[in-house]
């Protein structure tokens, strides 16, 4: 028995290469429930991060009462982390949305489904008649199921004909997709989690995996505890647990000034090239662009980079040497890169490092352009992310024709005169008044978008009809015209795909509370009431349940890189483990990693994009692209470093980054309702370095006003261990709190501004030119001490927010936190053979898929 508040990563089960993975089944049952009381266990996977740990939900008397890891799942081998164990369902359904709400005389008022949906459909029809489909926009999520996104994509693109559909994935992993598209021609994770088992070195670029994918971090900790541990290199301005592990492993912690990743990466690449740590044969056979890359990075000597990034030149050399001399390197990239101003450029340089060394498609040579949200991969695959379904290219007429065929609609019905609209642009259109109906599902933009004062102004517009579909009355719901109560995880059925391309089925364990309905049913209800139809007058979309939608999606994925045709609900249910795509009837166990043969989906007929200039975002035309003759080779794309637009100055002398802590998920709608997690990180704080604190006369726990050019927050100070010149704010805390600490949920419909404490009061509406991902880690702030503190800041001591003063009391477990760890040797099912996936280039003039395995 242990708990996952203080023992976040659990008992070590040391692991060495080539051995079967040790099993450790973690389970947690609600207070007072014994394992013998459980009526049944229902198969699922955790939806509180992109790891997608295989699990089973304990059901008793029609309620979810516990969770345990699935021993046979290749993703987690039975392990679960704090969020999965304590945050998967709210402690009580007391404040769940159970009935639709509509605004009557300014107040959100309970109503029935028919009234709410009629209200939506009436508005929708009149807007379509008066202003056409471009008046409609959908802002969705990385947290619904595949079937729901695909249904929404069909409704918006084929049914209504609007290109305005994107997800909060724009804030999350738009850069992951963009970087893979630019380098390899398509979204699709080259690597696999099994690469952790074989690698000699692990590089984490702007990724605090210890707190944000705790179970994957356990996997690495087990390797580090084993006989041939890899070296770890951490690239993060904060002293995270990842950074500590890097130093302990004999690796390096590079702590660049925020916003200087591109310079650092150019420096690393230069070292790899000048030291000849490159695979010339691989480069010649499988890549384009080496000469330009070499010439761009040439001036990025370790000394020059050291002065830009403020890291020791010697550390740059050592990190490059580790990358350059290890046999098998695994890299992961996440928000420290993605939410920055040269996001796609810097992430592409990580791709370049792997290409230069020919390190792709081999066990241990994984590249994981990480996802964050549990189902972000599906948002991207299904085209609910400001792209077209099946990684299709909006600028390729043949791809449009395929979709028109599949959906049985006219090609002209599918908007493709320009790229699908990205979320930041959707919000801009709403601000300008051309988008008049904004349907928000499973995301809380009144907390999670940058520059919240502006977001509130937009949501308040009288000419914007706002629909919010959520399980809770969020900060965003307070601005809605209609609120639709959604069923959540465990209350509905569907599939989703983790960052390692692994698909899990989540079955319905319990009934949704009250009248809450699955998002799929809500979208289908809208489509039916709107009477959306295909060319032959059949209902569009044609399916009526999750499994039907899944089958529809399988057809859409057929022949594409993300081929799902070998999967079925039954197989996913019976397999005992998730299965990684591409998965075809010929390769029913899926594919552990991509690009084993060094052939990439860059052929003009198959690629998802013709690419962009990394500095400006300028698009490459089809003609220009064809002229390059990529022929299945990957692109080594280069870019000079440019400084961020907002850098610290005299008025705002500190660089402010934002991000996460281990105990909370995003805007805390679930984790804030778990007593165990809430108590571990109850309120927000700002983290600053001891030297900066001393200069500003700030002590631990003091109340501090953090100001940027956009707004301010008032929070206690944690004197932490980050680098000088930077501060960090967790972005989890909006204006809602279970215990009323923030004044309770906003009472007035238009009153979201009472207690400034959300990190996004400070951030700016700016985005990466290629991926359009907002720059959450780039703002300049100043700190003003407001009042002395009476107690230490409410920041956890267990992760990167640990205080520099070791005397500050440690985070403790409180409440119902007991976790049972069963250590065993249950053998997981045979992992998909490695590698199973090779990649053929279609002959000119054929439409053959890029995914046909050769073997
Ligand atoms: N506990 C928890 N886990 C989660 C989530 C959660 O909310 N809570 N959310 C999930 C989601 S959706 C996501 S997207 C992931 C995010 O997972 P991560 O990306 O790991 O988390 P963040 O804390 O946002 O940022 C990671 C690190 O980037 C560093 N950083 C900031 N600026 C820079 C920079 O300029 N350069 C470099 N190199 N590093 C920088 C920060 O110091 C921080 O430690 O987590 C997923 N997992
Ligand atoms: N400053 C700053 N801002 C950030 C970030 C940062 O690092 N710093 N990170 C960005 C990133 S990476 C992300 S992913 C976003 C996350 O930002 P959001 O998406 O706004 O955060 P969540 O709290 O996860 O909101 C998801 C909502 O969906 C609801 N929900 C959950 N499941 C379901 C379901 O099945 N159906 C429906 N209808 N609703 C459901 C939840 O109750 C919740 O209200 O924030 C972004 N914003
Ligand atoms: S690592 Fe992610 S998926 Fe796994 S239990 Fe934790 S939150 Fe859930
Ligand atoms: Mo995210």
UniProtKB/TrEMBL annotation:
CDD domains: MopB_CT_Nitrate-R-NapA-like (cd02791), MopB_Nitrate-R-NapA-like (cd02754). Transmembrane segments: none annotated. Its cofactor is Mo-bis(molybdopterin guanine dinucleotide); [4Fe-4S] cluster. Pfam families: Molybdop_Fe4S4 (PF04879), Molybdopterin (PF00384), Molydop_binding (PF01568). Residues 39-95 form the 4Fe-4S Mo/W bis-MGD-type domain. GO terms for biological process: nitrate assimilation. Keywords: 4Fe-4S, Iron, Iron-sulfur, Metal-binding, Molybdenum, Nitrate assimilation, Oxidoreductase. Residues 825-839, 846-855 have a biased composition (Low complexity). GO terms for molecular function: 4 iron, 4 sulfur cluster binding; metal ion binding; molybdopterin cofactor binding; oxidoreductase activity. PANTHER family: NADH-QUINONE OXIDOREDUCTASE SUBUNIT G (PTHR43105:SF10), RESPIRATORY NITRATE REDUCTASE (PTHR43105). Belongs to the prokaryotic molybdopterin-containing oxidoreductase family. NasA/NapA/NarB subfamily. This is Anaerobic dehydrogenase, typically selenocysteine-containing. The lineage of its organism: Bacteria, Bacillati, Actinomycetota, Actinomycetes, Pseudonocardiales.
